Amino acid sequence: MGLLSHRVERSEIKAGDHIYTWRAGYAYSHHGIYVGGSKVVHFTRKKEAGAAGLDSAIAVSSLLSQGSDECPTFPDCGFQLPDSGVVLTCLDCFLRGGALHRFEYGAPPAVFLAKLRGGTCTTAPADGGADAAVRRAMHLLTQNGGFGDYDVFENNCEDFALYCKTGLLPAAAGAGADGEGIGRSGQAASAVGVPLAALLSTPFKLLAAGPLGMAAVTAGVYCAGRYITDIGVRKDVVKVEVEDLAAHLGWRRAKAEEAAQKRQQQQQPSPEKKASSRLLPLKRKREICV
């Protein structure tokens, strides 16, 4: 296991493995579940009329699922239900010329913290073995709605692969108490953690002994942020059977909408406050006249 990621050869992977490949010069990675037969099930945006979805928030290229005539190897490459972001492609189309890496489960905390990037391992153990991961992935592939709506921070391709391997999902609509937060993916935690680490480490400038001390404090805050958001450490996750996933996602969506409505109501002033704000200038004007 390397400090950046764990690169493997094609001959080393087996059905049920969580695999990924780096894109755009290690700017981000795309994740999926290898189901055997040189095929991968992964998660992206739902198909849209006249346009394909994206496998990341960074729009660097079109989606792999352009249709079976795009892949000369497998006739079913690009299979995707109309209202689902879960797609089946061949391994070549998944990698798109990139190197193959395998995501590691049950990593010791010291190894997890030593990683330079998130989205390469987790402290959580895999659940149910390889067969369980393949079963979850194939079930979501063949069920309309699949894994819900793609969101780069709360529900992305790494979140999909993590669920297929562990069966774990956040208990609420997000990580925070008000329904906001990031999903389970280490990639999202890293994206949020870099600017957050720089921000939180600013008060320690006076304590840090020069640039090296400042860098050490920033790195410490960044690693701590990645660790506490890891699915193996978080306390806000529950085990959800894949057959019950659609109902669970519907409940989460309803909770998110309820939280959004509550925030909107809190931001809007009450009728009494509106009335008082209109009457206040008149009262002041009468006092001046007297």
TrEMBL record:
Coiled coil location: none
Annotated Basic residues bias: 281-290
Chain positions covered by the region annotation Disordered: 256-290
Segments forming domain LRAT: 20-173
Family matches, as InterPro entries: LRAT_dom (IPR007053)
UniProt cross-references to PANTHER family, sorted A to Z: OS05G0310600 PROTEIN, OS08G0546900 PROTEIN
Protein name, UniProt field: LRAT domain-containing protein
Organism for this UniProt entry: Urochloa decumbens
